């Protein structure tokens, strides 16, 4: 419900009043600052127009000034103000208004015209021109347009001036003044075509000779500018005058009409002998006409910057390299220097250096030079030594190449320079990028040799192949090519290349020997062997030949043949320790260990053998001793090598094997552990170490290693698996042990392994498997009484009483019954042969074997035969001893039930049930039976319920009772 | 409401059998006419704004256009929601006592003085059928237990039952729900003094089987003139009646009679939101249940008396409403009809407008004063005329839609509380369903971690004061320093006046909350037996 209190209403009223007051105050302040603030510029403009219509200029000016105060961005208000100021005779104020308008709207024609009008009236033509140039021509009359065109042309606005002249010429096409103005502006902006047209028109319409001469001169310029030199020359030749002789000579030169230019130039130089320009042109003409010496002499007579290039070129052409170098050096320091000049400078320096060096040390040059600068060499041997003057040339070459402007010729020349300096890699890097590498022989030869000498065989091979193809008689290419292929591990290619070489030089022994080696590596063993044999026939004492032939046999696995080659070698050859070592090794390989020991011993006796090779031989010797079974010698040799502390896995392995063979498991373990610290052990080594651990009694580690090997899938041998099974069995891992034994058993189904399997299966709870295994074991007719006893006990436990008792008989037959009496009694009890049980128990009691258990067994045997009173009597006689054991009390209870001493039985079973000893379910059951027989049904029910809770099965008969 | 009821019945051509429907017809016709007119004018205005916005200031122009569209949309939604109101007789609808009723009074930390009065009043509630009264004490206070037992209430407490004190009031109510078996559950806040006829007035509406709850009007003790607009007449006397017309009244959490069957059909009071009443209503409606509103106060209680308390309460409402809007949006909520979707969205939209759009409007003049720019390219006078027509039409329409229920004051409160709404909306994005924000009950005596309660009033309303002062001063500064054209300043002065008017409500109330009338003074009311 809306209830406004008085206070609340008052509060609202105060607030509303305050806000109203504030609004009024704010608006009043705004109006104070800016009277009539609600009026905009347009309103004032309308007022000004109204005043103007009434011719009240002052009022109109005031209104329009208010308009632009309101809206300073509308140029129209300013133009309007400017026009009013003009009418009021206030040009400065008008100009200011127009200027402001133009600042806002630069293309406002009214503002521009107005301002220009005032500026022209004030004589400020330049400012006016600027203003006018910004106006559209369509708004201007002819006189203004003519004046504007003139002013624009005068102040360099030629394009705008041409536009204005075009509009003027449209109205008066033959006006010479317009034509002259137009053509002058066209010439100024290099609009040659427009200039040509108007100048031609001017020549045709102008009666003024001076104007015609001017037009002709301008036309020649225009024609030359568009490349119509011939027309220009023709125009001048048609009106030859002394004043245009120079121009004619120049045009003749440009048109390469040297024969026409020369008389003109000779005439000109006669009239002005010191005119260097004419002299230079004449020199150019002479040069063009093939008169080089005269041209060079003439140029040299007027040495200036203008003829520097032709002088340099002529010096180079005339092979004046020193002078050419100097001239080109000057030229390259000028602004007009071109890349070609720098290249020629480099070339000149290069040639000058070579010339100077030739004077000091003549260079061997073989092949024909394609360029005078290139001292072509077809192979490394023919490349001249670096020249002392090469540095200057190289500097220039490098600069050119760095600028990426060097021509191919320059690169080629620089490559040769680098080759001379034996900087083959650099030379190749430069040469391989030459544009015509595969087309120009000199480039190909250079690149091939550079690559080969730089060791870039992969790059060299195809280049050498091409070069060899181009120059098939050049054996150096073939030799280098073979070496390149050899270096690239392409022996077949290398061999084929050497075959090509040997076709040219059949007696080249070096090539044949190299070919044999290459054939061997290429797999052509037969041909290699044949070649080696033939070479060896010629040089039997050539160690290298013997070595390589033996190597060839070794590579083929023909160790005996290799031994034959080495052993038949002359003593001088066999003095080489390397060959002795190889011979020893070969004997090792064919398992002739005594011979190997002999040659290794001889090798080790030699001096100057590297330590590493000596160690290798020593180890091999120890291995040979081991193989021959001479463990002492092997141990001694290994001690010499300090094998036990070695870091060589091979040596440690040898030492471990020796230790194992010598039955020293602890030492073997130490060595194998050291080996394991150096690298992971493989399958064999792991099993070795596991076995050695087992031998020294460290079953835990042995099992861990066997498990590791098993996981890795290394354990495949039956003995290893059996060892694993044993270790697992010892560790109480019966199921795992069983698995191992099963894997190990496979075909070996009888004997010791079957017994182990049976034990493991028994322990693992797999009775059926255990029984089957025991049966397999027994099938082997074992005679060990302990094993028979174990099997008998298993038979009892597994319910196979007949077999068990039979085995017991065998055991008793072998070792007598001493110590087994109680066990025999219990076994017969289990087999329900109570009479025999009584007999054995009686003997046990008499022999004092088994203590109360023997008595109890006797009680049981008697009780179970129905000899209750005897059993009862025996129990009573031994009550104290029997009652000390739950088992005894239990039997006392049974007998009590049988003897109908139900209260006693009840108490016994009651105690046994509550102590939770033995089988509580059974005790509760018997407690119930005793209670039932006593007629105590409440306790009987309680007992049976309890028995059921413990999982005991309560026979209905017991309940019925 | 009283004023409406006091109007003489104009039976004229009205044949409606609804209570007070014919008397309301003239207002309704005017409201509809002016609302429709406003919507049409608004459309024209929006088109004009679209054509006139200054595209050189694209961001400001776009925001301005969007803000105007949102305001227009909010008005459309409100018009739909208030298209017709449903009134009810103060006597209510008599019942026969066939329902068994449980009265729940959840408490956590309310002063014992208030609780004593509340329990006494609740113990006097009359009802012919079976009735059980329960105090649900989430603080496990022994003195409350003693008090409850002494007044014949059952005392239930989660802490004393070794149950986790989770999910605030909703969790507490659900705990009570599980311990009781009444057909209906009347929930009263711990400070709500109920009238003895409360149940008898409401229970008759429960004969309609699909009605999940009946919400009675809330009445609060406020300072003179209700400076914080705690009575919320627009909501309790208009909006709820509009929702009731669609059988979609919203529960206010107290003075509400729930049907147990309905609550159990949705698994009890909804716990994922702090404002369990709105969320539970929302869920019940989505499950096809209906709800009624009884537009006469049957209880009255406490409301925030300081700007800190108002911030806490309204901020919580805004946060939870926006959590629903963002994470369980009405337009994607399965089971709601279109009207319900619009009604629930209107609540959220009003918060969005209050938080962002109204302040934006009040910042526009300041922006113009400082930069000299205008959002519109058309002459200012043209804008003022068109906007004024639209504005006046909207005021008239709102006047009739919320007839005599101080819609202007409601608007000023919404506009003035923009910082807390802004905070609530932003926070809502960080609290999805399953991640509940902290909560502080109204008028609690226990320490509350929310900083807003401990803020000095001036600090709490600093943003509003800044906007107010800037609008007040900036026209002069801009004028003196030539920052803006006088014409633009003059046009914006009128907008600034509206901004000052809007901000002044909260600023004044925060700084000068006023005195208590003796009959509204809690010290008096809660000391009565």
From TrEMBL, chain A:
Domain of life: Bacteria
Coiled-coil regions listed: none
Name of protein: Tetratricopeptide repeat protein
UniProt keyword Transmembrane present: yes
Gene Ontology biological process terms from the UniProt entry: transcription by RNA polymerase III
TPR repeats: 475-508, 509-542
Positions of transmembrane segments: 12-30
SUPFAM superfamilies, alphabetized: HCP-like, TPR-like
InterPro entries: Tfc4/TFIIIC-102/Sfc4 (IPR039340), TPR-like_helical_dom_sf (IPR011990), TPR_rpt (IPR019734)
Keyword annotations from UniProtKB, A to Z: Membrane, TPR repeat, Transmembrane, Transmembrane helix
GO cellular component: transcription factor TFIIIC complex
UniProtKB/TrEMBL annotation, chain B:
Protein name: Glycosyltransferase
SUPFAM superfamilies per record: Nucleotide-diphospho-sugar transferases
One function term, GO molecular function aspect: hexosyltransferase activity
Keywords: Glycosyltransferase, Membrane, Transferase, Transmembrane, Transmembrane helix
Major localization listed first in the record, in broad terms: membrane
Record's signal peptide: none
Membrane topology value: Multi-pass membrane protein
Organism the protein comes from: Solidesulfovibrio aerotolerans
Subcellular location: Membrane
Entry-linked Gene3D superfamilies: Spore Coat Polysaccharide Biosynthesis Protein SpsA, Chain A
A single Gene Ontology CC term: plasma membrane
InterPro entries (alphabetical): Glycosyltr_2/OpgH_subfam, Nucleotide-diphossugar_trans
Bilayer-crossing regions: 33-53, 59-83, 342-364, 384-402, 414-433, 461-481, 488-511
């Amino acid at each position: 419900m809306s209830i406004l209190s008085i206070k609340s209403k008052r509060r609202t009223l105060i607030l509303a009043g305050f806000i109203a007051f504030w609004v009024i105050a704010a608006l009043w302040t705004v109006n104070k600052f800016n009277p009539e603030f609600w009026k905009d510029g347009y309103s004032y403009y309308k007022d000004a127009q109204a005043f103007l219509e009434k011719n009240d200029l002052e009022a109109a000016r005031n209104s329009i000034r208010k308009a632009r105060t309101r809206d300073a961005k509308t140029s129209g208000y300013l133009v309007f103000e400017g026009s009013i100021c003009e009418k009021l005779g206030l040009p400065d104020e008008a100009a200011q208004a127009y200027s402001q308008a133009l600042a806002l709207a630069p293309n406002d024609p009214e503002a521009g015209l107005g301002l220009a009008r005032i500026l022209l009236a004030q004589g400020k033509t330049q400012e006016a021109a600027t203003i006018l140039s910004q106006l559209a021509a369509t708004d201007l009359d002819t006189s203004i347009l003519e004046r504007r065109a003139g002013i624009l042309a005068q102040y360099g606005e030629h394009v705008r001036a041409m536009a204005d002249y075009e509009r003027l010429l449209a109205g008066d096409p033959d006006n010479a003044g317009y034509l002259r103005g137009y053509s002058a502006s066209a010439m100024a902006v290099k609009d040659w075509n427009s200039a040509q047209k108007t100048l031609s028109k001017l020549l045709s319409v102008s009666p003024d000779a001076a104007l015609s001469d001017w037009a002709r001169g301008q036309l020649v310029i225009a024609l030359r500018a568009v490349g119509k030199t011939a027309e220009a020359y023709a125009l001048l030749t048609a009106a030859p005058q002394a004043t245009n002789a120079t121009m004619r000579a120049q045009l003749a030169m440009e048109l390469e009409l040297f024969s026409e230019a020369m008389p003109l130039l000779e005439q000109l130089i006669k009239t002005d002998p010191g005119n260097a320009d004419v002299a230079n042109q004449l020199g150019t003409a002479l040069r063009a006409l093939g008169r080089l010496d005269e041209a060079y002499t003439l140029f040299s007579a007027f040495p200036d910057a203008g003829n520097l290039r032709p002088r340099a070129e002529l010096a180079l052409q005339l092979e004046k390299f020193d002078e050419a170098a100097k001239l080109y050096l000057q030229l390259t320091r000028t602004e007009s220097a071109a890349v070609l000049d720098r290249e020629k400078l480099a070339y000149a320096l290069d040639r000058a250096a070579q010339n100077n060096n030739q004077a000091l040390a003549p260079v061997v040059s073989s092949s024909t030079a394609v360029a005078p600068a290139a001292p072509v060499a077809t192979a490394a041997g023919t490349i001249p030594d670096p020249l002392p003057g090469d540095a200057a040339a190289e500097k220039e070459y490098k600069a050119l190449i760095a600028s990426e402007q060097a021509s191919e010729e320059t690169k080629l020349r620089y490559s040769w320079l680098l080759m001379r300096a034996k900087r083959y890699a650099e030379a190749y890097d430069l040469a391989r990028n030459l544009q015509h590498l595969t087309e120009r022989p000199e480039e190909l030869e250079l690149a091939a040799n550079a690559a080969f000498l730089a060791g870039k065989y992969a790059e060299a091979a195809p280049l050498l192949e091409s070069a060899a193809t181009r120059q098939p008689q050049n054996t150096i290419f073939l030799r280098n090519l073979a070496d390149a292929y050899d270096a690239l591990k392409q022996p077949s290619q290398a061999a084929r290349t050497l075959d090509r070489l040997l076709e040219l030089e059949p007696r080249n022994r070096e090539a044949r020997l190299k070919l044999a080696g290459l054939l061997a590596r290429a797999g052509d063993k037969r041909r290699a062997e044949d070649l080696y044999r033939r070479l060896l026939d010629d040089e039997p004492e050539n160690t290298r030949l013997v070595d390589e032939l033996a190597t060839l046999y070794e590579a083929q696995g023909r160790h005996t043949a290799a031994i034959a080659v080495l052993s038949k070698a002359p003593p001088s050859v066999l003095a080489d320790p390397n060959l002795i070592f190889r011979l020893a090794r070969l004997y090792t390989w064919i398992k002739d260990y005594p011979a190997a020991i002999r040659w290794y011993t001889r090798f080790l006796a030699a001096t100057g053998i590297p330590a590493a090779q000596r160690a290798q031989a020593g180890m091999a010797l120890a291995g040979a001793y081991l193989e021959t079974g001479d463990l002492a010698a092997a141990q001694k040799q290994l001690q010499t090598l300090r094998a036990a502390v070695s870091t060589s896995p091979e040596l440690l392995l040898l030492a471990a094997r020796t230790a194992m063979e010598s039955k020293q498991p602890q030492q073997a373990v130490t060595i194998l552990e050291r080996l394991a610290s150096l690298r992971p052990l493989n399958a064999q080594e792991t099993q070795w170490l596991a076995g050695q651990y087992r031998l020294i009694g460290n079953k835990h580690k042995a099992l861990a290693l066997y498990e590791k090997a098993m996981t890795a899938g290394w354990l495949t041998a039956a003995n290893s698996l059996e060892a694993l099974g044993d270790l697992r069995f010892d560790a109480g891992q019966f199921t795992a042990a069983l698995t191992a034994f099963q894997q190990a058993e496979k075909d070996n189904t009888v004997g010791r392994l079957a017994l182990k399997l049976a034990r493991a299966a028994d322990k693992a709870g797999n009775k059926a498997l255990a029984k089957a295994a025991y049966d397999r074991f027994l099938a082997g007719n074992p005679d060990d009484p302990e094993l028979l006893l174990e099997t008998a006990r298993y038979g009892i436990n597994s319910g196979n009483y007949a077999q068990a008792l039979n085995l017991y008989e065998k055991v008793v037959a072998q070792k007598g019954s001493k110590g087994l009496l109680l066990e025999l009694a219990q076994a017969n009890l289990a087999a329900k042969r109570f009479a025999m049980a009584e007999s054995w128990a009686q003997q046990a009691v008499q022999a004092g074997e088994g203590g109360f258990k023997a008595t109890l067994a006797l009680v049981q045997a008697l009780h179970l035969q129905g000899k209750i009173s005897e059993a009862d009597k025996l129990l009573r006689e031994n009550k104290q001893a029997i009652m000390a054991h739950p088992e005894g009390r239990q039997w006392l209870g049974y007998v009590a039930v049988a003897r109908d001493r139900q209260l006693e039985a009840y108490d016994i079973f009651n105690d046994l049930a509550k102590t939770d000893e033995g089988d509580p379910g059974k005790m509760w059951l018997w407690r119930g039976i005793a209670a039932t027989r006593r007629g105590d049904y409440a306790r009987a029910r309680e007992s049976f319920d309890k028995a059921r809770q413990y999982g005991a099965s309560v026979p209905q008969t017991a309940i019925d009772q | 409401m009283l004023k409406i009821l006091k109007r003489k019945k104009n039976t004229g051509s009205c044949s409606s059998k609804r209570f007070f429907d014919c008397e309301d017809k003239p207002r309704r016709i005017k409201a509809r006419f002016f609302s429709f007119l406003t919507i049409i004018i608004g459309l024209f205005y929006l088109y004009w704004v679209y054509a006139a916005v200054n595209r050189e200031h694209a961001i400001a122009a776009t925001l301005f256009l969007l803000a105007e569209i949102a305001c227009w949309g909010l008005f459309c939604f409100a018009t739909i929601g208030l298209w017709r109101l449903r009134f009810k007789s103060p006597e209510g609808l008599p019942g026969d006592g066939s329902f068994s009723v449980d009265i729940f009074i959840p408490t956590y930390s309310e002063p014992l003085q208030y609780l004593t009065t509340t329990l006494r009043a609740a113990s006097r509630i009359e009802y012919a059928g079976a009735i059980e009264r329960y105090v649900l004490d989430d603080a496990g206070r022994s003195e409350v237990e003693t008090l409850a037992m002494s007044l014949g209430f059952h005392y239930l407490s989660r802490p004393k039952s070794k149950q986790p004190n989770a999910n605030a009031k909703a969790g507490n109510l659900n705990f009570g729900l599980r311990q009781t078996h009444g057909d209906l559950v009347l929930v009263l806040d711990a400070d709500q003094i109920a009238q003895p006829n409360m149940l008898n007035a409401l229970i008759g509406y429960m004969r309609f089987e699909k009605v999940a709850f009946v919400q009675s009007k809330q009445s609060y003790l406020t300072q003179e003139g209700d400076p914080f607009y705690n009575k919320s007449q627009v909501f309790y006397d208009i909006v709820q009646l509009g929702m009731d017309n669609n059988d979609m009244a919203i529960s206010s959490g107290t003075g509400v009679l729930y049907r147990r069957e309905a609550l159990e059909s949705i698994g009890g009071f909804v716990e994922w939101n702090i404002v369990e009443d709105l969320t539970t209503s929302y869920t019940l409606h989505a499950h096809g249940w209906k709800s009624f509103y009884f537009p006469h106060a049957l209880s009255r209680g406490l409301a925030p008396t300081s700007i800190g308390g108002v911030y806490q309460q309204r901020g919580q409402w805004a946060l939870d409403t926006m959590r629903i809007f963002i994470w369980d949006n009405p337009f994607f909520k399965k089971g709601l009809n279109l009207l319900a979707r619009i009604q629930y969205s209107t609540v959220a939209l009003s918060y969005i407008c209050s938080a962002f759009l109204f302040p934006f409007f009040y910042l526009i003049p300041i922006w113009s004063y400082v930069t000299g720019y205008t959002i519109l390219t058309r002459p200012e006078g043209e804008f003022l005329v068109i906007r004024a027509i639209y504005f006046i039409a909207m005021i008239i329409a709102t006047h009739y839609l919320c007839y005599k229920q101080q819609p202007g004051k409601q608007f000023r409160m919404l506009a003035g509380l923009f910082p807390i709404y802004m905070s609530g909306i932003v926070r809502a994005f960080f609290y999805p369903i399953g991640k509940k924000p902290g909560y502080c009950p109204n008028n609690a005596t226990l320490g509350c971690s929310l900083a807003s309660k401990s803020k000095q009033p001036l600090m709490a309303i600093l943003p509003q004061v800044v906007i107010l002062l800037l609008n007040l001063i900036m026209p002069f500064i801009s004028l003196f320093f030539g920052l803006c054209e006088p014409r633009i300043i003059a046009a914006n002065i009128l907008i600034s006046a509206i901004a000052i008017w809007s901000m002044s409500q909260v600023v004044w109330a925060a700084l000068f909350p006023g005195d208590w009338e003796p009959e509204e003074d809690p010290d008096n009311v809660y000391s009565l037996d």
